[in-house]
Amino acid sequence: MRAVLDSKVVATKxxxxxxxxxxxxSVVFGNLTGRYVTVxxxxxxxxxxxxxxxxxxxxxxQIVDTPGxxxxxxxxxxxxxxxxLLLRERPWTVIQVADAKNxxxxxxxxxxxxxxGIPMVLALNMSDEARQRGIEIDxxxxxxxxxxxxxxxxxxxxxxxxELRRAVSSARVPxxxxxxxxxxxxxxxxxxNCLPVPVPAREFVAESLLYGDATVWKPIVQVSESVEREGAxxxxxxxxxxxxxxxxxxxxxxxxxxxxxxxxxxxxxxVTGATGSTWAQAFGRxxxxxxxxxxxxxxxxxxxxxxxxxxxxxxxxxxxxxxLFGKILNxxxxxxxxxxxxxxxxxxxxxxxxxLFTMAVTYALALILPIVTCFFLFFGILEDSGYLPRLAIMxxxxxxxxxxxxxxxLPMILGLxxxxxxxxxxxxxxxxxxxxxxxxxLTLSVPCSAQLGAMLGMTAGLSWxxxxxxxxxxxxxxxxxxxxxxxxxxxxxxxxxxxxPPIRIPQAKNLYKKIRARLxxxxxxxxxxxxxATFVLFVMDKTGMxxxxxxxxxxxxxxxxxxxxxxxxxxxxxxxxxxxxxxxFFMLAQNGLMDPRQTTVALVVITLFMPCVAHFLMTIKERGxxxxxxxxxxxxxxxxxxxGLLNLVLKSGLIxx
Amino acid sequence: MTTQKKYPIPSAEQEDLEExxxxxxHCFERGIRxxxxxxxxxxxxxxxxxxxxxxxxxxxxxxxxxxxxSGEGMKLAExxxxxxxxxxxxxxxxxxxxxxxxxxxxxxxxxxxxxxxAQSICALLGHPSECPHGSPIPRGECCxxxxxxxEPIISSLDKLSxxxxxxxxxxxxKNHPELHQLxxxxxxxxxxxxxxxxxxxxxxxxxxxxxxxxxxxxxxxFVRRTG
Lengths: 657, 227
What we know:
The complex is a heterodimer.
Chain A: H1 2-11, E1 14-19, H2 25-33, E2 50-56, E3 59-65, H3 77-89, E4 93-99, H4 103-114, E5 120-125, H5 127-132, E6 135-137, H6 139-146, E7 150-152, H7 161-168, H8 182-194, H9 202-210, H10 217-220, H11 225-242, H12 249-268, E8 269-271, H13 279-286, H14 290-340, H15 344-351, H16 356-385, H17 388-400, H18 409-415, H19 419-424, H20 432-445, H21 449-459, H22 464-488, E9 497-499, H23 508-543, H24 545-560, H25 567-576, H26 578-590, H27 596-608, H28 613-623, H29 625-652
Parallel strand pairs in A: 1-3, 1-4, 4-5, 5-7
Antiparallel strand pairs in A: 2-3, 6-8
Helix pairs in contact in A: 4-12, 6-12, 8-9, 8-11, 14-16, 14-21, 16-21, 16-23, 20-22, 20-28, 20-29, 21-26, 22-27, 23-25, 25-26, 26-27, 27-29, 28-29
Chain B: H1 12-29, H2 35-45, H3 50-56, E1 60-63, E2 66-69, H4 71-94, H5 99-112, H6 115-124, H7 141-146, E3 154-156, E4 165-171, H8 177-185, E5 192-197, E6 202-206, E7 209-213, H9 215-218, E8 221-225
Antiparallel strand pairs in B: 1-2, 3-8, 4-5, 4-8, 5-6, 6-7
C-alpha cells in the first residue's frame, strides 16, 4: 500500500519551465521530454501549455512548458496562464530559461520567482549567440549572487542539457532580493502579515493584492473557503497601503526590481565586443528599412506565389490529380467497388459523380493537400526565421488605415493558409475592436491556401487581367471594409509595439514537426467536412433537392452573377468548405463551362463568400455568437452585391477580360 | 540672530510689481502703448495701485499720452516674461500638464524661479524661442552663449533621427498597458539605446533587445541625446 502511495507521489512531481518569450523554452522542453511542441519566433504563439514527462536522477517527473512572460504579475492572457499554473500546481522545481544575451530582463523574472518560494535553476540559453556577440557571463558568480544553480545551455544543439538535468537536484529558492523603498517594503509587510496562515507564496500573493489584483485568489482559493474571506480583509488593508503613494506602487516596486536586475547583470556580464555582425543580423536590419524592406516583402510574397500558387497548385496538383488519382487510384477504386459493392446506390455513393472517394477524397488529397502542405512549409520558414515581425513593421502603415496595427500581420498571413487557424491566433491582438476587424476581414477578404490554389488554377491560361481584376476588387474591398469598420466599431486602435527577434536560420527538425502538427490539425478539421459536404450533395442529388436548390438559387447565380446553373453546387458546398467550393469552380473552368467573364465573377464571389463551417464555428468560439452571425450576414450580402456589380461592369464592356 | 535667505519667498508687493511689468511688456508686444489702455489692463490683472507703484519705483514713466519703461524696468519686464514663458514650456512639454493648469501654475512659478533655475530650464528645453501660445520668449544670457539653434537636451523619441543614440529620461505613458510592456521589455528610464530607424515605424535597439514602436508611443518616450 505504502509503495503504491510513494510511486504515485513520485509520478506527480512537477517541473515547470518558465521564461521570457522567444528564449527557446519549447526547445529545452523538447530536449528534456523527447516530445516536441511548436517553437516559433513570433511573440505570443505558445499560448497553449504543453506537458510531457522526463527523467531526472532516476525519477520520472512531469514537465510543463508555460507560455512566455515578461512579468509574473500578469498583464496578458499568457502571463495569467503561467502565474495561475505556478500557484495552483506548486511545481516541485522551476527551470527558468533565460536569454543569455538579455540577462537583465530575465533576472527581473528571477527576482519575481523568488517571491514564489519554489526551488529553481537558471538556464542561460542561447549562450552561443551571446558568445558570438562577445557577451560573456560569469555563471559561478551569478549563481552565488542569486543563490540558485546557473547552467549555460544551447538548447538547439543540446549543449549543457546534461548539466541542466544534474542541476535540478540542487535547485534552491533564490536568496536574492531587490532593495525596496522602505515605505514600499513596509506596505508589503503589512499585507503579508494580514494573510491567513495557509496561503502559499505569501509574499507573491501580498504583492499582487497590493497591486489591486484580486484574481490571484482564483488559483489558490481551493486551499479553503475561509481563506478567501480573510483575504478580502487583506484587500482592504492593501488598498489603503497602496493609496499612500503618489506613483502606482506597482511601478515603484518594478523600478527597484529593475535596478537590482541591472546591477546584477552589470556585475556578471562582460561585453568584449561583438565578433562582427553576421549576414543574418545584417539582413535582419535591412529588412526593417523602407529600402530595401518593401522590396524584400514583395519578394517574399512573390516567392509565396511561385511556390504555392504555381509549383503546388499547378505542378503538384497536376501530378496528384491527373496521374495519381485520375490514372491510378480512381480507376482502381472504381473497379474494386464494382467488384465488392453489389448495390448500385451504395456504389454511386462511393465512386459516383458525388462519390465520397471520387469527389471528397480526391479533392482533399489531390487538390488541397499539396497546396496546404507547401503553404505551411513556407509559413513555418517565415515564422522560424523571425521575418514575420519585420513584415509587421513594413505593413503597419497599411494596416493602420484599417484600424489595426502591424501585429495583425500574423493572423492575416496565416489566414492565407487556413482562416480557421488564423481566427484562433487573433488572440495575439490587444483590443476587442482589432479582434473583430481581423475576424471580419479574414471572413471576407482572405482566401485560404486551398481556395487560393484552386483559384490560381482557374486562371491558368487566361489573361493576366483576370487575376489583376480579382486582386484589385478583393484588396480594394478589404481596405474599404476595414476602413469603414474601424470608424463604425467602438473602441480604440492600440498603437504598435512589438519586440523584434533576431533573424535565425530555421531548423529542419523544428519545421518538420511544426508542419506535421499543423497539417494534422488541418486534415482532422477538413476531411470530415469534405466527406459530409459530399454526402449532403449526394443525398440532395438523389432526392432531387439539388435541382430544386439550383432553381431556387437561379435568380442569383444565373441572373445576378451570370454564372452557369451548375455553379450553384459550388456555392452549396462552399457553405461547408470554401476551398471545396473553389475546387468546384475549378472543375467547371477546367471542363470549359465558364468563359473568362464568368471565371472573374466566380473568383471574386467565392473569395468574398461566407466562411466555411469550421471557420464560422471558430468565429463563434472566439468572438461570440452575435458578432459571428453579423459578420456572416454582412459578408453574404456584400459578396453577392460586389459579384453582381462586377458582372454588370464586365458585361457592359467597360473593362474587357 | 537673523538668517539671510539666499532665495527669499517674494513678498506680495514684489509679486505684484513683477506681474505689472509682465503685463506692460505684453501690451508693448502687441503695440499698445497709450496710458489709458495700459491702466485698464493693469487694473484688471493686478490692482488699481499697480500703475502708481510702477511710476514711483521708477520702472515706468509717462511720455505724452504713452507709457514707456525705464532701462531697469525693461530689464525686469523681459526677465519676468522670460521666466513665465519658460515655466509654461516646462509645464507643457515636460510635465505634460493640460493647458487648463498651465497658466495659473506658470503665474506662480515665474516669481520663485531663480536665475540659475531659469537658465537650466532654458538649457533643458533647448533654449526655446516661443511659449506654447506662440509668443516669443526673451532670450537670456544662456541662449546667446549657446548660439543660434540648439537641440533640446531632452526631447521625445520621435524627434530623433536615424542612427542617433540616447538614454531614456522618462516615460509619459501614465497607466497605459503599453507602459507596462515597455518597462518589462527593459525600456526603463536610464536605458541606453540607439534609434535604428524611424520609418515605416520606429525601431529602437537597447542592448540585445530590438523593439518596434509607432509614433504614438515614441512621442511619449523622452530621451536625452548622447550623440
